[in-house]
Task: inverse folding
């Protein structure tokens, strides 16, 4: 079995070395089974040393000139050789336990795709409340968080990958389409929870509560249309780090 781990990265020179080290350590769960792992970083038009540091960290680097998370993930998947794809965000750290659970799910053969609940290390009440709410919704609806998604490569390609119409919530759209395909194939989508992926809450620090609420208000008033505009989704795309 060959596993492809894909990391979209836009100006992530501060985080990418540590993320690659942690992914390499977690990947020992696959290595013990005799599985091979390739790590692919998609440089999403960075203006810093992201690509250079990713190569130094042993990753294969591809370039996507259009700054969009969906396109970056799709570009990484396009060169992936693995039978299974794992998408991990540059500010997120999987554990050996999480990868071990993914391996068990793959071996069982009943799952088409999945995700993981998330955890944060900071004692930040608002963030912890938001994470708790998301984890509950994620498990109920079987929606994968963008920080960690795994799926059969053939399934990913059959549904056309991540939607390039969306600049946010592309992971929820992908989850819905994977669930539909899974029903056709007699397989399901799962959300793992024993070993949550640890992710950062940097957006909580870099952007004010007012900025977050303003985006949510526009999202409701305009019935989701801001999700299709890079400018409207500046929290994800203005490069603030």
Result:
């Amino acid at each position: 079995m060959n596993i492809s781990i894909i990391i979209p990265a836009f100006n992530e020179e501060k985080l990418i070395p540590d993320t690659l080290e942690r992914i390499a350590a977690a990947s020992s769960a696959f290595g013990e089974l005799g599985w091979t792992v390739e790590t692919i970083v998609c440089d999403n038009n960075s203006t810093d040393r992201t690509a250079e540091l990713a190569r130094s960290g042993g990753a294969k680097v591809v370039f996507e000139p259009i700054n969009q998370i969906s396109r970056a993930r799709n570009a990484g998947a396009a060169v992936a050789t693995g039978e299974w794809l794992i998408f991990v965000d540059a500010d997120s750290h999987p554990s050996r336990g999480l990868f071990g659970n993914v391996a068990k799910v793959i071996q069982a053969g009943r799952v088409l795709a999945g995700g993981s609940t998330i955890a944060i290390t900071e004692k930040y009440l608002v963030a912890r409340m938001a994470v708790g709410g998301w984890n509950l919704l994620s498990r109920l609806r079987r929606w994968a968080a963008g920080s960690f998604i795994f799926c059969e490569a053939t399934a990913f390609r059959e549904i056309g990958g991540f939607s390039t119409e969306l600049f946010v919530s592309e992971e929820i759209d992908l989850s819905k389409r994977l669930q539909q395909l899974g029903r056709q194939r007699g397989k399901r989508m799962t959300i793992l929870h024993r070993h949550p992926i640890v992710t950062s809450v940097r957006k909580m620090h870099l952007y004010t509560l007012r900025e977050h609420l303003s985006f949510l208000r526009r999202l409701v008033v305009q019935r989701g249309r801001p999700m299709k505009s890079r400018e409207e989704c500046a929290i994800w795309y203005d490069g603030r780090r």
